[in-house]
Automatic annotation (TrEMBL):
Source taxon at top rank: Archaea
Occurrences of domain HTH cro/C1-type (ranges): 25-53
The protein, known as: Helix-turn-helix domain-containing protein
CDD domains noted in UniProt: HTH_XRE
Pfam families: HTH_3 (PF01381)
Length: 130
């Protein structure tokens, strides 16, 4: 599985799940309001909150990622980010996390050719942007 496919199928959904959790639980947005501000459907927001979507990877324990998600949630909650800007920020965060090697073990489980000890695909292709 190539790194971009990994990002879209497995890394972006947990980031969106965490973003939705922060918007609803910490910023007090309703599910409908969170949906409107993120460009998701209310049903998708509900699925994220119930853990039915974006649950294969956990991003809470990744301090840098968690910090960036919370910063982004603050901007979203205040209306300071459009949906296209939000999508670009989430994609950028996914690339950053993958380039840092946070999901190498998971990638290797999906495709053993991408084992952390023998692969540098994400680190080389998706160099950290910060």
């Amino acid at each position: 599985m190539n790194p971009l496919e990994l990002a879209s199928r497995y890394v972006v959904p947990p980031l969106m799940r965490r973003l939705v959790e922060v918007l609803v639980e910490e910023h007090g947005l309703s599910r409908v309001e969170a949906a409107r501000k993120t460009g998701l459907s209310p049903a998708a927001v509900t699925r994220y909150l119930k853990g039915e979507r974006g649950r294969l990877l956990e991003v809470r324990g990744l301090e840098e990622v968690e910090s960036r998600v919370k910063d982004l949630a603050g901007k979203v909650a205040s209306g300071g980010v459009s949906v296209p800007e939000l999508q670009a920020e989430v994609a950028s965060l996914a690339i950053y996390a993958m380039a840092k090697g946070y999901f190498c073990g998971f990638h290797a489980k999906l495709d053993p050719r991408f084992g952390p000890e023998s692969c540098s695909a994400c680190r080389n292709l998706l160099r950290p942007q910060r």
